[in-house]
Amino acid sequence: MSLAVPTVPVVRSPNFLQTLFTGNLAVTAAxxxxxxxxxxxxxxxxxAPMDPLTQSxxxxxxxxxxxxxxxxxxFGRDVLSRLIFGSRNSLIVGLVSPVIAAVIGTILxxxxxxxxxxxxxxxxxxxxxxxxxxxxLLAIMIASVLGGGFWNVVGVIAVAFxxxxxxxxxxxxxxxxxxxxxxxxxxxxxxxxRIIIRHVLPNIAAPIMVLLTLWVASAIRLEASLSFLGxxxxxxxxxxGNIIRxxxxxxxxxxxxxxxxxxxxxxxxxxxxxxGDALRDAxxxxxxx
Amino acid sequence: MSPLLKIDDLAxxxxxxxxxxxxxxxxxxxxxxxxAVGLVGESGSGKxxxxxxxxxxxxxxxxxxxxxxxxxxxxxxxxxxxxxxPEIRGSKISMIFQEPMSxxxxxxxxxxxxxxxxxxxxxMSRSDRLARVVELLQMVGIPDAEARMGAYPHQFSGGMRxxxxxxxxxxxEPRLLIADEPTTALDVTIQAQVLDVMxxxxxxxxxxxxxxxxxxxxxxxxxxxxxxxxxxxVVETGPVATIFDAPAHPYTxxxxxxxxxxxxxxxxxxxxxxxxxPAGSIKAGCPFQPRCPRKIDRCAVDMPPMFDHGAGHGAxxxxxxxxxxxxxxxx
Lengths: 289, 331
Fold this sequence. Notes:
heterodimer; A: mainly alpha; MetI-like fold; 70% helix; B: alpha/beta; 4-stranded antiparallel beta sheet; 12 strands; globular; cell membrane (chain B); Peptide ABC transporter ATP-binding protein (chain B); nucleotide-binding (chain B); ABC_Ni/Peptide_Import (chain B)
C-alpha cells in the first residue's frame, strides 16, 4: 500500500438529476411512472385501442377480455381507452393548476413576508379568509359561479391552492429574511428585488417544491371530486374523476372503471409524493453526499 | 489630509411603544486612510449601532439617526439619498459580520457569493470575475481555492467561513472595512489566524479597518488607535500603546485590569462592579459614575467633556483631567 498523501478534498457539486435518482429505487420508480403517464397522455390517440366515446348497447358491462382489456362500462364504452384519454384532463389539471397556484402564491407570500407592514397585513388577512374555507368547498363555490368547463376547473383549483402556497412562502420568507446572510447581502449593496431572487427564493424553494408535488396529487383528487359532483370535466369527455362518478351507480354491473381509475389516481399521487420528498432532499445542498 | 471617515456628534434613537430611547449619544471619531481603528465596549455600549449607522443599515423604524454627520471621503453619508447607499455598500465600505456560521447563504456556492459584490459593482467579464474570486480566496488563505469555489458553506469550518466573509468584503477593494466582532464566534486559535489574515490584507491592500470588539486583546493585535465606548458615548480615545500603558478613564482602566496577563495568573481578575445601565436611563452626569471607583461629587451632576491628554489621547473624565486643560477638540 502506498503512503496516504494528505490532500485537500476536492468538492464538486454533483449533477442535480444524479443526486435526485441515485441509490433510491422508489424515486426511480416514481419517476418512471410519471414519465409513462405523461407519455400516455400525450400519445393518447395512438395508444387507446378504441374510441373512448363510442357506445354500444351490445357490449355493456363486459368483463375484461382480449378485445376490451379492462372491460366496458354501462354504455358499452371501452374502459381502457377512457382511462387513457382521461389521463389528459387529469394530468393537465394536476400539473397546471398547482404550478399556477405555486407561482402566484409564492409571489404574494414573498412580497408579504419581505416587505411586511400594511401590505403583509392585507395579504395575510385575505389569505386567512380564503384558508378558512375547505379547498373543495371553495372550489365548488367558485365553480358554481363560473360554471363547469375544463379550464375553469384548472383556474378554480389554482385559486383554491394559492393561500396554502402564500402562507408557506410568507412563513419561510420571514425566517430567511432574519438570516445574517440577508443582512450581509444588504451590506454588499444588493437591491431588494435581487435579494429576493438570489437569496430568498433559493432558500424557500425546498418547502415550495415539496408543497407543489403534494398538491399535484391533491389537484388530481380535487378534479376527481369536482368531476364527481358534475362540476369538472363534462361528460361524455373522460377524466379519472368522472369515470369514477359514472361508474359508481353501476358498481355491481361493471366495477372495472372504478378499479382502474382508482388505481391510477393512487399510483400517480403516490409517485408525485415520493418525487416531492426526493426533490426536497436534492435541493438541499447539505443532504448531498 | 482629511480623514477617510469622520463621525461627528452622532446620535441614534430607538423608538419603541411611543418611547424614544437614546442609544448612541454624541459619538465622534475619525478613521484615516489605511489606518486600523478599534471600537471597544461592552454589549449594549452602542459600538455595533455606530458601525451600522455608517452604512445606514440601522432599521428605520424603529431606529433613527437623530443628529450628527458621517463624512466619508468628504461626503456626508447621512445626507445622501437612500437609493445611493447600495452603490457605496460593498464597494467603498464593506462589512464583516459576527456570525460566520450563518452569514453565508447555505444554497449558494462560495464562489458565487464572493463574486456577487463584483458582479454588482464592477464591470468585468465572467472569466475575469472568476479569476478575481480565486485570487481573493487565496489572499485570505483558502487552500485549493479553485476547486473550493464550487463548495457550499456547510462544507467549510467556522474559521474558513470567516475567511470567505473577509474575501467577500474585500472583493471590490473597499477603502474602509468594518469588521463587527469578526472573531467572537471562533476558537482562540482560529481567532489568531483570522486576525493574521486581516493584518495581512490590510498591508496588501491598504484598506482602512474599523474593528469592533469587546476584546481588547483582539484590538491590540490589529489596531493603531482605539475608541472606547460606554453606554452610547465615547469615553476614551487614543493610540493603542497609550491606552494600554496609561489609560486615562477609569472604565478603560477597569477593562484592562480584567484581562489575564502572563505572569500574573495567581491574582484574582479585576471585575468592574455593577453592569451597564439600560439605554436611556442616564439623566445627568457621567454614565460610568455609578460603577466608578474614583468618582467625585461632580461626576453625578455634570457630563465630563473630552479632555485632551496630548498626542491624540483624550478621555472624558473629571477625575483624571489634566490640570489647566482645555476641552479637546476631537477631530
